[in-house]
């Protein structure tokens, strides 16, 4: 028996989306990792599951899994993709996503750009989380990153404009540092001006991706905290740019960008290891 899936991306950060709203699928972390494999499976950075919403006001419950099968509380680019799917399916322009990080309001613009309210960042060491109390604005690690959670742990290293650090070298070492009991996504940021930043993210459980929405949000929050950025910033990544605002009135972080449905397909789930 074959099961349908959507293949989507946000600035090249790509996803396989499967729907459990009409019944559970036989999925395990190992099978999710196998489906995410770019050679033996469909291939994606993150695997996204849709389930019936169980909170008032939400249109869908969304869970995010990395290519290694680990679960993440947030995924900004995938949130835009799901908002686009639900918006088209239900004929609405402001779907509400229930996630492990809370309810996310979204808005689908006439221009196809999608804005997600990612909620407020968490900046306390226990919320990131870190293994013990340190200054989350300047961690005692290589590159002295600043840490913030957008529902998932992020550490942002601010590099000089001409720095050639390769995220594939430094990223894994920082991702697995014992200071991060749940590992962390590592952003490598180069500030161009108060409203423009270049960012590459070594993602927990997925590696170097073309774009990272929650990583862009965390990098803007950390840049503002460091006095390097205005509250609205254009974040340019390898796959393209997002607009991020850390709103002063309520502390929420708004992220705007595209979402693309690449194709739909069918997969024989039971041929994948459990
Ligand atoms: N690509 C995602 C980030 C996934 C985060 C995941 N790697 C984690 O374990 O937190 C985004 O657009 O926000």
TrEMBL record:
What domain of life? Bacteria
Name the Enzyme Commission number(s) assigned to this protein: 5.1.1.7
Q: In which pathway does it act?
A: Amino-acid biosynthesis; L-lysine biosynthesis via DAP pathway; DL-2,6-diaminopimelate from LL-2,6-diaminopimelate: step 1/1
Which GO-annotated molecular functions does the record name? diaminopimelate epimerase activity
Enzyme category, top tier? isomerase
Q: Which keywords accompany this UniProt record?
A: Amino-acid biosynthesis, Cytoplasm, Isomerase, Lysine biosynthesis
What residues does substrate bind to? 13, 46, 66, 76-77, 152, 185, 203-204, 213-214
Described by its record, this protein's role is as follows:
Catalyzes the stereoinversion of LL-2,6-diaminopimelate (L,L-DAP) to meso-diaminopimelate (meso-DAP), a precursor of L-lysine and an essential component of the bacterial peptidoglycan.
What NCBIfam families has UniProt attached to this entry?
Answer: DapF
Question: What is the name of the protein in this document?
Answer: Diaminopimelate epimerase
* Species lineage: Bacteria, Pseudomonadati, Pseudomonadota, Alphaproteobacteria, Acetobacterales
